[in-house]
Design brief:
two-stranded antiparallel ribbon, 2 strands
């Protein structure tokens, strides 16, 4: 009898545990359902529809017609696309420059200097500003007639005539890159400063006792231990560079000509100015693949475990 009672009790506990687990699972899915539904409606379905549209000839005024790879074949001979792609890659290549400057600033404000908290605040202030506001400020600073840079250059007799920064095929893209670097400096500095403050001080003390100078301590201790922070800045910088629509559009509109056109502004113009939604969809797919390749390459450079979470 005791054995039968024990088996009945064990069966009831197992059934209760199963019902409890089922209720918890249902509750979890109830909480996740709204977010998953929004993600499906605003992320997955538009992405799928965009891919389907890239294989069709479609406009709001005519039915869709399947054209296969025609839109992708047009990309191969589209000079504007390749110009926008190169400009986008130039913006991506500027991310390491911004990170190097931010690292220098982080080392400066992490040292024992008077007013370092004030300096940290002033440097970080560039990041919370809206990108449109940043673009307007830098557009004024680069203005040919009333811009700050031209005023200073002419006051110091460095130039005889004002420099048309944003209207020059030579200076337009570097001007946009400079504004982009300035906006992101504060954010990079905070990330790197956090990484610096997490490095144990006894490592520097031991290295100093062993006779390592400041340069060797920086190369042997600081840089290796800052690798996760530098990688994070690198990924954020790349993604920010390829999606700098508002900065480019407000400062130059992609001009002069196509000198500052990047893929995201080109996609916008194809879809909403030229109403070539089908071709814009194909360029968007290529742009999406480019983002995946960049993310994969950055992950490989970091050792292949970016974003990994250690289990407790």
């Amino acid at each position: 009898m005791a054995t039968v009672g024990a088996e009945v009790g064990s069966t009831r506990r197992a059934a209760f545990a199963a019902r409890r687990s089922t209720r918890q699972g249902v509750l979890i899915w109830c909480f996740l359902a709204p977010s998953l539904l929004i993600f499906l409606l605003y992320r997955i379905l538009p992405l799928v529809w965009n891919v389907v549209l890239s294989f069709e000839a479609w406009s709001p005024l005519k039915p869709a017609v399947f054209v296969g790879l025609d839109n992708y074949e047009e990309i191969l001979t589209d000079e504007v696309f390749w110009q926008a792609l190169w400009n986008t890659l130039y913006l991506v290549a500027s991310a390491p420059i911004a990170i190097a400057i931010a690292l220098g600033l982080a080392l400066l404000v992490d040292s024992d200097i008077r007013g370092r908290n004030v300096y940290r605040t002033l440097i970080f202030l560039s990041y919370p500003l809206m990108t449109v506001a940043v673009a307007i400020i830098w557009r004024w600073m680069f203005d040919e007639r009333v811009g700050l840079f031209n005023y200073v250059a002419r006051s110091l007799h460095l130039v005889d005539a004002p420099i048309p920064f944003l209207n020059s095929f030579t200076w337009a893209l570097p001007s946009v890159i400079a504004a982009n670097i300035w906006q992101m400096l504060g954010f990079y500095m905070i990330i790197l400063l956090t990484g610096l403050q997490n490095i144990p001080g006894n490592l520097y003390e031991a290295a100093a006792i062993d006779g390592a100078n400041a340069v060797r301590r920086f190369l042997r201790i600081t840089l290796p231990l800052l690798r996760p922070s530098i990688f994070l800045c690198f990924v954020i910088g790349m993604l920010n560079s390829v999606t700098s629509f508002d900065l480019v559009y407000v400062m130059t509109g992609g001009g002069p000509g196509r000198a500052t056109e990047i893929l995201v502004t080109y996609i916008y113009k194809l879809g909403f100015v030229q109403t070539r939604f089908d071709y814009a969809a194909a360029v968007t797919v290529v742009f999406f693949v480019l983002l995946l390749v960049i993310a994969w390459a950055a992950n490989r450079l970091s050792g292949g475990n970016a974003g990994a979470v250690e289990a407790d």
